[in-house]
Amino acid sequence: MKLPEAIFGAKVSKQLLFDCVQAYLANKRQGTVKAKDRGEVHGTTAKMYKQKGTGRARHGSAKAGIFVGGGSAFPPRPRDWTQRTPKQMKKTAMFQALALRYQEGNLILVDHLGVETIKTKQMAAQLRKWSLTEALLVVEKNDEKIWKSVRNIPRMRVVTFSDVNALDILSFGKIVVTEKALEALEKRLG
Question: What is the pLDDT of residues 148-165, one digit of tens each?
Fold first, then answer.
């Protein structure tokens, strides 16, 4: 099959890939982490001991960050980590991630993933035949037989062409793409 030069001949910019991956990972964060500072900790506000004459440091209450059970000095707060990535940047990152895997020789193109029944053993044997220990399988559409046959194999993942992104491609060493999925990818990235 003749591979499109526009996708697989693309010049790879490591900075662009890095920026996109950072954005994908940042957007996955919940940002719900929270700890209490000294004003929020439940406890007495009584002075621990007199100000002068003890030879110890002066303290106003046991809620200071230095004490066990006290508040944190600079606690983490809930925040929104999302980064907006332009569509063109995501699209270019996809091109370049595919091109990178192709240039490394880690892109495998197959006519179809022949699965007649839901059988992990058969799928594992097929993947072993291609000497794959970890891979991302890109298919044209959701196929229950393929998905259920692969889901229990460690370090294997199935995604449709419409759901795949640069982070998925760069997370796996080898990429297996069906012909129909590649044609659909070309149209999507076209």
Answer: 988 899 999 999 988 898
Neighbours of 131 (CB within 10 A): 7
The type of residue at 165 is: N
**Consecutive H or E run containing 108:** strand 107-110
Residue 99: helix, strand or coil by DSSP? helix
pTM of the model: 0.78
> For the segment 109-129, what is each residue's pLDDT rounded down to a tens digit?
888 877 788 888 988 888 888
Judge contact between 21 and 94, C-beta under 8 A. Answer: no
Q: Which residue has the tokens 């799928």?
A: 123
Asked if 10 contacts 94 with a C-beta cutoff of 8 angstroms, the reply is no
> If you average pLDDT over every residue of the chain, what do you get?
89
CB neighbour class for 125 (10 Å; exposed up to 12, middle 13-18, buried from 19): exposed
Contact 139, 158 (CB under 8 A): yes
- Mention every residue, 6+ apart, whose C-beta is less than 8 A from residue 62: 43, 44, 48, 69, 70
